[in-house]
Specification:
Blueprint (H helix, E strand, L loop, with lengths): L2 H7 L18 H16 L6 E2 L8 E2 L10 E9 L3 H8 L4 H14 L5 E11 L4 H18 L2 E9 L9 E12 L14 E6 L8 H11 L6 E2 L4 E2 H5 L7 H10 L3 E6 L4 H7 L6 E6 L7 H10 L3 H5 L6 E7 L1 H13 L4 E9 L9 E5 L2 E9 L5
Parallel strand pairs: 4-5, 11-15
Antiparallel strand pairs: 1-2, 3-6, 4-6, 7-12, 7-13, 8-9, 10-12, 11-13, 14-15
Helix pairs in contact: 2-5, 4-5, 6-10
């Protein structure tokens, strides 16, 4: 059989009308408009090392400078911003989430002493709204400028039928480089090192499933003004993640006694510091070494959150940690202060006798089997 009758016999019904890609929910013209709206912001992250422009299949970066390295090691990282993105969508504020994304990616790279070079992003959405996509990418580009990183590529994918029209999610990846003999990490950490805290700007981009549950339990709207915070709940929750990369790269180049960094993300302060502690050593961290920012005590009280659960989920006001010799600790803290980042001593590295065992001790985290972190005292709020 041939024709329409034959097709129906094979289970294929003749179309009553033409179905276009736009009918299926994908608007390629909207995607093109979004690119036009974002391209100037992206171009501002490009130095002479970036070849070509927006629209190429691959971003090109001139790596000739790596010839000066004796043994260059490439460092890579990829991440997202978790459920903080729900707050951004609810508030209709989409640019700050871009800075969050850059921070989550590049600040992982600098932990080993690497200088971030290039970044790419990926945005998945239910419907491309050009102005919204452009806001997100402008935020990413602004974060890349702050981090000294070239935004060399990205992708926006429209997923109708999979995501609701107003839904979106973001992810990013970056590559950096470090000289092999300048690599920072647990191999350098020594007894007597000082544990230095570098202040967080707020909640950063971890633990938002817990925080959103507390907000719902408390019955707060995002517009609710809380006296303890001095602003609305939504403004506090959307505070962008601090980007430490330029500061950390400078510290790695100028502080000879710097041994390791730890980016405080998922798992909290102790678990992330434990990732850079070598076997046989422990970092003592005094909870009363700093005043707890208001948002953390507000979340704890409003949700009746157990303190050990709070500190294993949120950063508690510390976004990055440096482990440095006692001789260079003051110089490192002074450099942080000069860069506008408050820093203070949390504790010190000691021999781990292995005898202490309690909820206040973290040994190993995220697959790393190394030293320990001992949390002592109580928080000052």
């Amino acid at each position: 059989m041939t024709g329409a009758a034959g097709k129906e016999a094979q289970g294929v019904r003749p179309a009553a009308a033409r179905i276009t890609y736009a009918d299926a929910g994908v608007d390629t013209h909207a995607g093109d408009k979004a690119v036009e709206l974002m391209k100037d912001a992206v171009a501002r992250t490009h130095g002479p090392e970036v070849l070509g422009g927006i629209g190429a299949f691959a971003g090109l970066f001139d790596a000739s400078a790596l010839k000066a390295y004796r043994r260059p090691l490439l460092a890579s990282s990829t991440d997202g911003v978790g459920t903080k993105i729900v707050i951004a969508r609810q508030m209709g504020v989409h640019d700050t989430i871009g800075q969050d994304l850059v921070a989550m990616v590049v600040d992982d790279i600098v932990v080993c002493g690497a200088k971030p070079l290039v970044m790419t992003d990926y945005i998945a959405c239910g419907k491309v709204v050009p102005e919204r996509i452009a806001d997100i990418v402008r935020g990413i580009a602004m974060g890349c400028e702050m981090a000294g990183v070239a935004l060399v590529g990205g992708e926006t994918a429209e997923h109708p039928g999979v995501m609701d029209p107003d839904d979106y999610d973001v992810a990013g990846a970056a590559i950096g480089v470090v000289e092999a003999d300048a690599l920072l990490g647990p191999e350098r950490v020594r007894e007597g090192d000082v544990v230095v805290a570098m202040a967080a700007s707020g909640l950063h981009s971890n633990g938002y499933s817990l925080v959103r549950s507390v907000v719902a339990h408390a019955g707060w709207a995002l517009e609710t003004q809380l006296p303890d915070l001095g602003r609305s709940v939504g403004a506090e929750l959307l505070e962008p993640t601090r980007i430490y990369s330029k500061l950390c790269v400078d510290l790695a180049a100028t502080v000879p006694g710097l041994h390791a960094f730890s980016h405080v993300t998922g798992g909290g302060l102790a678990a992330n510091v434990a990732r850079v502690m070598p076997t046989g050593l422990a970092a003592y961290v005094a909870r009363d070494a700093w005043e707890l920012p208001a948002i953390f005590s507000v979340v704890q009280a409003a949700g009746g959150v157990p303190w050990n659960d709070l500190e294993s989920t949120l950063n508690m006001g510390v976004g990055m940690v440096a482990l440095v010799t006692a001789e260079d600790a003051n110089a490192l803290m002074a450099a942080c202060k000069a860069a506008g980042v408050p820093a203070w001593a949390l504790g010190e590295v000691v021999i781990d006798d292995g005898r202490m065992a309690s909820p206040d001790v973290i040994r190993g985290a995220k697959g790393v089997h190394g030293g320990a972190v001992y949390l002592t005292g109580n928080y000052s709020a």
